[in-house]
């Protein structure tokens, strides 16, 4: 039965005239590029990245803000907005093709007054930066470095900023959670968010993928160093396994690429 529902959903929203290009998800219509990998994963999984979604939901507070950095088409932003009526979400997505879909989703959503989408890359500095775009269907692999995970890419220039700057521009709100999935630029994004993280002490969900990190010459243990400097502990998803040493981290990365930073008590 699940296979039939998945197949029908893929056909209806992926190819059927009048329906293709957007699908219903958590009370809104999410738009996606043709043949989108992320759409296919959402069909296969039913709830996209369900464990990560549950984790983020656990951190929500009325009146707080979530930064969804590397928001893609909004499949984690939308459920959070649906779950907490007083929540504000700032979705950051530098990929031009993907951002166009995110904008359409936001514009038609019931939460557009509480949802902001920004077409910028994040790092340690402000300015402009080269950005490598794959075929729009594989926009999940777009990034500041070419990780060679999605075939041929095209280089464009996008604005670059820091999370600290975005937080300041937003009025330095109470931030309950930050999700960072930026195809290898996670360490730079964390370094550009030191003020936000030290002040608001949010839950931080970060992708930490060995192939992506290699493109940045970023040793995996950098995550442990950054967390220690901030006063956070590191846990591997989905079971929240405490990760305290480089050998533990590298072992966990063989099985998972989502890690959680939680403030030390």
Note down, in words, how this protein is organized.
With about 260 residues, this protein is an alpha/beta fold. The chain has one domain: Rossmann fold, CATH 3.40.50.150. The protein is built from eleven helices and 13 strands. Helix 5 links the parallel strand 4 and strand 5. Helix 1 (about 1-15) runs antiparallel to helix 2 (about 35-45). It starts with a helix and ends with a strand. The model has no long low-confidence stretch (mean pLDDT about 95).
CATH architecture assignment name: 3-Layer(aba) Sandwich
> How many distinct domains?
1
Summarize model confidence as the mean pLDDT: 96
CATH fold label: Rossmann fold
The largest β sheet comes out as: 8 strands, mixed
Apparent shape: globular
| Proportion of strand residues | 15-25%
**Helical coverage, percent range:** 25-40%
The level-1 CATH class: Alpha Beta
Termini separation comes to 46 Å
- Could you name the ranges where pLDDT drops below 50 across 5 or more consecutive residues? none
Query: Could you spell the SSE succession in H and E letters?
Result: HEEHHEHEHEEEEHEHHEHHEEHE
* Total count of helical runs of at least 4 residues: 11
The largest beta-sheet arranges its strands as 5-4-3-9-10-13-11-12
Secondary structure elements and their pairing?
Elements: H1 2-15, E1 22-25, E2 28-31, H2 37-45, H3 50-59, E3 65-69, H4 77-83, E4 88-92, H5 96-107, E5 115-118, E6 121-122, E7 127-133, E8 154-161, H6 163-169, E9 175-180, H7 186-191, H8 194-200, E10 203-207, H9 210-215, H10 222-230, E11 232-236, E12 241-242, H11 246-253, E13 258-263
Parallel strand pairs: 3-4, 3-9, 4-5, 6-8, 9-10
Antiparallel strand pairs: 1-2, 7-8, 10-13, 11-12, 11-13
Helix pairs in contact: 1-2
């Amino acid at each position: 039965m699940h296979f039939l529902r998945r197949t029908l959903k893929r056909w209806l929203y992926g190819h059927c005239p009048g329906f293709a290009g957007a699908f219903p998800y958590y009370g809104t219509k999410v738009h996606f590029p043709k043949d989108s990998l992320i759409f296919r994963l959402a069909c296969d999984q039913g709830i996209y990245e369900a464990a990560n979604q549950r984790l983020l939901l656990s951190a929500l507070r009325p009146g707080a803000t979530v930064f969804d950095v590397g928001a893609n088409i909004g499949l984690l932003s939308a459920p959070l907005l649906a779950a907490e009526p007083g929540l504000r979400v700032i979705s950051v997505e530098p990929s031009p093709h993907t951002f166009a879909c995110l904008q359409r989703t936001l514009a038609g959503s019931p939460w557009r007054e509480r949802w902001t989408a920004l077409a910028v890359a994040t790092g340690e500095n402000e300015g402009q930066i080269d950005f490598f775009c794959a075929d729009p269907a594989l926009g999940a692999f777009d990034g500041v470095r070419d990780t060679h995970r999605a075939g041929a890419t095209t280089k464009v220039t996008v604005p670059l900023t820091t999370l600290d700057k975005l937080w300041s521009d937003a009025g330095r709100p109470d931030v309950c959670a930050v999700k960072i999935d930026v195809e290898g630029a996670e360490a730079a994004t964390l370094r550009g968010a030191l003020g936000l993280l030290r002040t608001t002490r949010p839950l931080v969900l970060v992708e930490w993928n060995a192939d992506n990190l290699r493109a940045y010459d970023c040793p995996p243990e950098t995550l442990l160093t950054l967390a220690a400097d901030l006063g956070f502990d590191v846990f591997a998803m989905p079971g929240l396994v405490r990760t305290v040493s480089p050998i533990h981290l590298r072992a966990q990365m063989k099985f998972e690429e989502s890690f959680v930073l939680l403030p030390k008590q």
